[in-house]
Each structure stands twice: as structure tokens, then as C-alpha cells.
Write a structure and sequence with these properties.
The chain has about 220 residues and is of the alpha/beta class. It is built from 9 helices and 7 strands; from the N terminus they run H-E-H-H-E-H-E-H-H-E-E-H-E-H-E-H.
Length: about 220
């Protein structure tokens, strides 16, 4: 499976510019394990449960053929390539365009996390994420706290609050989403209502290292 390798500087220029909104949804091994119904009764590396209903909703997002940018993680392809290709073929989704899901995480690995932060800092930010992100080193205009685990169980309330926050905004915002696998459901719902005005990005675990949470192996290697 091929993915487009985005130009980081071009994406950062868009990220910093309120007049160029875009939406980016990231599909990693956890999302695909859920979509493919391979995780029943278990949880991902962060302790998020694979709820069958969540898997169905994630399937529905892909089957709607989203018009925004979709990110495909190389680990997901390594683990489930045949199954992913089968799912896409079954639902006639071979025409979907996929970008490298880890564009921003790879920037961090290669010493350019500060460039991402600088781009984000130019925007008015709505941060949707867990409590430990309260001390991120960039200005945050609005915060919406999500549970550390199993945000899916609170999805309806989270979406209501997020939509309410954006409905009240007169200027474009950058919506930073860090909510585990339900992030793709949040991103999709927000895009449908506000994608023509606001930039909506699933940043995943990217900000964790900035607040002292080494949630990914590359963070521990670089900081040991």
C-alpha cells in the first residue's frame, strides 16, 4: 500500500495559516485493529478498550469516503496489510488517498518538534485532550478535557461540547485532538460541521513528550 509522503514545511505553513483550513485524521494499528474487529475483549497500548460499537463507527467513517486528509500508519500496514486491503476492496475504497500518518511524529523524531509547536502557536487553539496536556508550551484559547482512557464511552458528551465551542467562534481555530481511537470519530464529526472554517488535526500522542509523559518508545529513547 502506498502513502503520500507530505512535505513537512508545506504542511506547517498551512497549519499556521487560518485562511487555509484542512483536516487530518490518523489511522494507526489501534484504529485498524478496531475496524477489522481484531481486538474484541482487549485494549491497545494506552489501555483503550476495543469496543465493537466503536469499530463499527470507525468503519462507517471510512465507508463515507471522507474528503479530508487520511493518514495511514506504516505499523498498521506492516501488521495488517492484507486485511486492510481486503477491507478496502470489499467496500470499494481503493480510491482513497492516504498520507503518512506520522508526519508530525517523524518531525519530532528528527528534531523538528519545535517547528510544529511554532506553527501551532500562531493559531487560536482548541485543545481536546487528557488532563496531562494542561501544560503544553503553546497558548490554548479553549480546552476540552477527555478521559485518559476509554474516551469513547463519553463520545456524545464530548462531541456536544466540542461543537458548542466551535459554534461560538467567529474566527478560525486550530483544533488539536488527542483522544485515542475515538479521535477519528471526533475529527470526522467536527469536520462535517466546521471543516470549511477550522483546521482539525489528530495529533495523537505528539504533545506528551512536551509535558514529561514518555508515552511512546521514541520519546524514551531520545530522553533516556
Amino acid at each position: 500500500m502506498e502513502t503520500i509522503k507530505p512535505d513537512l514545511d508545506s504542511w506547517l505553513a498551512e497549519l499556521a495559516d487560518p485562511s487555509r483550513p484542512f483536516t487530518f485524521s490518523r489511522w494507526g494499528d489501534g484504529e485498524w485493529r478496531s475496524v477489522l474487529d481484531l481486538g474484541a475483549g482487549s485494549a491497545n497500548c494506552d489501555g483503550h478498550t476495543y469496543f465493537p460499537a466503536m469499530g463499527m463507527q470507525l468503519q462507517q467513517v471510512l465507508c463515507s469516503r471522507p474528503s479530508y486528509r487520511l493518514g495511514l500508519q506504516s505499523l498498521a500496514v506492516k501488521l495488517f496489510k492484507t486485511r486492510i486491503m481486503g477491507f478496502l476492496a470489499k467496500h470499494r475504497l481503493q480510491g482513497l488517498t492516504w498520507y503518512d500518518a506520522d508526519i508530525f511524529h517523524k518531525a519530532a523524531i528528527h528534531g523538528r518538534l519545535s517547528d510544529v509547536v511554532q506553527a501551532v502557536a500562531k493559531r487560536k487553539v482548541l485543545l481536546i485532550g487528557p488532563l496531562h496536556l494542561k501544560d503544553v508550551p503553546f497558548p490554548v484559547a479553549k480546552r476540552l478535557q477527555v478521559p485518559t482512557k476509554n474516551a469513547y464511552q463519553h463520545l456524545t458528551a464530548l462531541l456536544d461540547r466540542a461543537l458548542e465551542a466551535l459554534d461560538a467562534e467567529t474566527e478560525p481555530m486550530l483544533v488539536s485532538v488527542s483522544a485515542g481511537m475515538p479521535a477519528e470519530l471526533i475529527v470526522d464529526a467536527l469536520h462535517k460541521q466546521h471543516g470549511n472554517k477550522h483546521t482539525i488535526i489528530d495529533f495523537g500522542s505528539l504533545w506528551d513528550q512536551l509535558v514529561g509523559v514518555k508515552s511512546r518508545s521514541y520519546m524514551r529513547v531520545r530522553n533516556k
